[in-house]
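Lab notebook, bench 4. The sequencing result for the construct came back, and we need a structural model before the next group meeting so we can plan mutations. Quick request posted to the team channel:

Model the 3D structure of this chain.
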Amino acid sequence: MFEKILIANRGEIALRIHRACREMGIKTVAVHSEADANAMHVRLADEAVCIGPARSGDSYLNKPAIISAAIITGADAIHPGYGFLSENADFAEMVEKHGITFIGPTVEQMRLMGDKITARKAAKDAGLPITEGSPALDTIDDAKHWAHKIGYPVIIKAKDGGGGKGMKISFSDNDIEEAYTMAKAEAKASFPSDVVYMEKYLQHPRHIEMQVLADKYGHVVHLGERDCSIQRNNQKVIEECPSPALNQKQRQKIGEIVRKAIAKIGYQNAGTLEFLYEDGRFYFMEMNTRLQVEHPITEAVTGIDIVKEQIRIAAGSQLGYTQEDIHFNGHAIECRINAEDPTNFVPCPGKIQEWHAPGGLGVRVDSEIYSGYSIPPYYDSMIAKLIVHAQTRNAALMRLRRALEEFVIMGVKTTIPLHQKIISQPEYLDGQYDIHWLEKFMEEQSKNKEG
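Done. Here's the predicted structure in token form:
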């Protein structure tokens, strides 16, 4: 087992990883920007190294600085968390070349699944269902040709995309050129490559993903599905596990398909396969070769600590259980709490004047925030995750309502009021929503306010 792990991240996920390491008897190294000198994970870690100014490019994305910090502190592994360098194959390769273990999949697997075009081919070859799609689109004529072949509506995506960037929808020849041009421009501005491709656009799907764990010896398990359909601008807002849209037969079928596919690909460590689900059918979108923000709801339902499993697998341990040993217990829901104005989503960094996290049976809060902490303006606005778990979905919803009422964050605006509105809507309570539901709901709220 590792003796010391460097945590190459910040915020709640850095604290989450620190806690797992501490429970495993592993020392931690926190790296931080100048803006994060007072962050909670920095205060709790065994060692801390400042790796640069506030700007991410000069700190959390500074590969040489992070690796240097690992070398000078004697860390034998690096956990990248999510975001930043977590899916950067070049970084993982640099880490391994310096004799340090990267806690994640192999470099080859990251490159394979990080390119959405090669990932689609690998998924199809492994037996996963996919939407109709195109190869790389070099010209607008290519885009028109494939749009006619696939059939409108279509969505053009950046091959290296993520976070909703580099994605544009086209409904006819009238807007295909604009969609193609804008998708390429966003891809060029946000990713290493401006290459784009095309898929059939599903108009009323749910976003359902499957969590997997795989060791270096060919053992694979899935940990069930998460429904992440409550989204805004392709960013997840609320997630739940299991999905209210699936029955047990559907759940077992897609779970087994995914487990066999991961084994065929030869994947290692934790990963998540994301699907669109419409009219009873699944369509593979992409694979995230890292820890997901919403992993706690899976942990609540399965009782498995995914971060500890990542560390054990990277250290060469076998999974200590088979698929038959995985038992799903109850229902869990996660709300992402952002420091944003809940009406227009403008970020609201600032000093936390008062902080009180909810508690009680089945309530978990993952956050680095504390009273007196100043939220820096340089990073993602998510400041906490509220996770509730109960035996039924209805019980989980009641617990979530109570926990949101208890949550006190003074000094900055947060999205807590938005979450309270969402979970009181009949469609959400009935589980009748798709990936467009929240944006339509927000539009109706805005119109009603103007009226």
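The chain is about 35% helix and 25% strand.
Will bring this to the meeting.
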